Amino acid sequence: MNKETVQNILPSSAEASSRLIDFLLEGSDSSTLILSSEGSILGVNSVAQDLFGYPEDKFLKLDIFEIVLPEFQEKIRSELDNTSKRTENNFTITCLTAGEEEIPVAVSAKRVKGTNGQEGQFVLRVQGSVAEPRTHQLTKCEHSLLQSTKAISRLLIRENDMESLLDEAAKQLYEINGYRDVSIALLDEQKGEIQPIGYRGDCSPHNWSVTPKGKGKNAPEEPLKTLIDEGRIKVIEGAGFCSACNRFKHQNPSKCILVPMKVKEKVVGFIQIIRSKFSRVEKEERQLLREIADDLAYARTKFQLERRLRESEKLLSDIFHSIQDGISLLNKEFEIVRANQWYQERYSEQTPLKGKTCYKVYHDRESICPNCPTRRTFKTGKVSRAIHEYPPDGDPNEWHELFAFPIKDETGEVEGVVKHVRNITNRKKAEQKLRKNKERLKERKQKLETLYSKLKGARERERKRISRLLHDELGQSISAAILNLSLLESSLGSSSNSEDTLQAKIEETQEILDETDDRIKQLAADLRPKMLDELGLVPAIRSYIDRFNDRHEVDIKLKASEFSPRLEREIETVIYRVTQEALANIAKHSGAERARVAIGRDEGKINLIVEDDGKGFDPEKIHGPESGHLGLTSMRERLDSLDGNFQIGSDSDSGTRIEASIPHKGE
Q1: Which helix (H) or strand (E) holds 266?
Q2: Which long-range contacts (CB under 8 A, 24 or more apart) does 235-240 make?
Q3: Tens of pLDDT along 249-267?
Q4: At 27, is the secondary structure helix, strand, or coil?
Q5: Same domain flag for 346 and 435
Q6: pTM
Q7: Strands (E), 331-395
Q8: How many domains does the structure of the chain reveal?
Q9: Containing domain of residue 363, as a range?
Q10: I want to staple 235 with a disulfide (CB 3.0 to 4.6 A). Which of 36, 71, 295, 561 is the partner?
């Protein structure tokens, strides 16, 4: 700082000021600062810059309170506020360097006049030279504190929870000579509370419900707020934070030392020590307390991380064991490192599974399984898949889908495999059922195609039969009737034909027409019985049996009761046609003398039984349209259309028995 600058700052008219300017510029060996009445630094010499470690430009941006420890700031403030005092005042304070080193200094301060002649415009403060470093002899208190530091370091390793650690740490500090009260508290920002954990002393602890940021009705008083905001050790003369009162209160003669516990420059708690006011807090004591606070802050972080790790491990373990598939971890020797609950329960007879090979436990083998997905994953480093059948030999009744997921180290080498096993038995059975259904549908389609072909042939044969009937029988009868009518017409004018001859011709013609009428009615009834539509199932079958008995030498008995209300038209038609086809087969093939037809209702079904005493046959040879037995196939297909059931039994000694049933929900 040059002479012109100082002269602009200091009053040139005052003789004292002039001598002071000369003193600054001639190179005093003391650190010298010039302050405003508010404490701003207006000037500084090179000795002060060297002492505090600040260059001049940064020094001039500070005020005196930023380089003086908090416990000495009141002394500085009283000097600045005392405007009437003109004499030089000497005292000792502790300052803080740019490197946060605490240095004790001797200070002399004097007020000077400003350029306008008013008192108190500027204050010139000269800091005396710092004494040469001395070898500090540990006091009894510091020696005990050093031992406590070592003991607390051992506690960090031994204790398993934070509360026990802080309680033991408070006990260690309380045993130090001169410490009357020790509290160790943690800051809970979420709840807005300071919670005392470790405590030794005269007062019982309570929750210190204060807002860390210093807001709200429970805001901490200034010393605690400063500690939280600035994070530096604070020494308070004659006061301490009382947990019972939730405030700082006068405790004289005493000295309160507040030591912040910091993690990454953030205050997470503090140590409060109440000790004798008359003993000086040396630099070494501060350093030891700071180390203890740092260790405890580290321990808090360590316990928090360990708790979170335990919670994460428990969560992952719960998820691991709750999975309803098999999950296991295998090493390079195919040994089980860990297996979840699914494996534990499935292979409970072989527990514990850890350390055993997967192929021995899971497959009872002495060597690695062929097509092993785990081995492929170890070789390729990729996910592998396989499907295993149980039992492996014979018809399997259980299937498992296996996935092997690689676990790689930092170099990319596979160091383990996660084996995932899923029971896919239901899926496999569904696939098998679907495959069988497809095959059945294919066979059914082939049968339907064959049946359709047979039905086409049957329809053509039926057409031929009806055509032949119309031509050979009905046509001939009609031709004979026409011929007789022609003869009668020609005979009417002739006297040669007697009346008896004419009458015979008329009667013959009448018989021909009656037979033709019967044949037409029979044909119509065969194609669609009118009685089935008008009267129902049982009367129609009874009528058909009566006509059947007239045409064939078989004695057929009917056992049936009327259905009230009537059955659905589709059911009546199917029962009628099946009965008709069964009786036609009896007439064509059985040679039976007697037969029985029974129709009834039982347990939600309409049942039909047709049996005879004729010659039987082998039922195994007549299944399917390809057998040529179109009648039986037609009966089966008609019943299938209504979800009905068809069974046939036959024996050479006892005849044939046909049983048919159709589901029906009516009463």
Answers
A1: strand 266-275
A2: 235/69, 235/70, 235/71, 235/281, 236/71, 237/71, 237/277, 238/277, 240/181, 240/272, 240/274
A3: 544 556 788 888 888 888 8
A4: coil
A5: no
A6: 0.45
A7: 336-339, 384-390
A8: 5
A9: 326-423
A10: 71
